[in-house]
Amino acid sequence: MRLEIILKGKNNFKVPFNYNHILSAIIYNKIADLNFANELHSSKSFKFFTFSQIYIPKRRIVKDGIIAKDGVISFYISSPNDFLIKSLVDGFLEDLEISFQNQKLTIQKIEALKTPEFSSKSEFKTLAPIIVRTKKEIDGELKIWDLAPSDKFFKSLENNLIKKYIKFNNLTKTDKKINIYSDMNFVKRKRISINKGNATTHHRAYMMDLILEGDLNLIEFAYDVGIGEKNSMGFGMIKLLE
User: Which of 135, 73, 60, 128 shows the shortest CA–CA distance to 103?
Assistant: First the structure.
């Protein structure tokens, strides 16, 4: 299930280039069921939600961010967990104001979007960059390394999606299969920084077109939950190309 959120701030409201941690905090704070929000936030497992980049229709790029000339911004939230989506709707409607870096935004619109019709071979584009990581030995130490699109990158996307599907549905295994690949007609690397406490991590992630081919349940699940890693930090949201 997917929501579109449209927000309005003052004219010339500024959005920093790296805002994933800001949107993530807003989402957790808007979950109406506080016990569920705390359990979700503290979980070391998959969170089963994702969100898109921020869209700014009337914008101007400056040195340290993007100016929303009329103050209007929007983004999408998606999850296969209907309870989470309902709790978010309740939370957004309970208080129509949002604090975004000490700036007040008002919710102009919150809408549940209709799930599109998928085929067993569906084409998508990213609404948030994809991140895939591996462990790599550097100077005798194992370090986390962000992968670029490659056979290993796409195979990791497939395996990660299957793991999330099994976990979400409380299964031990599944015979469902999916192939994820790209014609590589559009690939754009993005460098994303995420602040967490006093630490900042930097990631190489990718906006791109994708093809998902296989089981329809897995394809719809990928649409809802996102593909790749760190979905709940704003990575891996996809949109069907129609």
Answer: 73
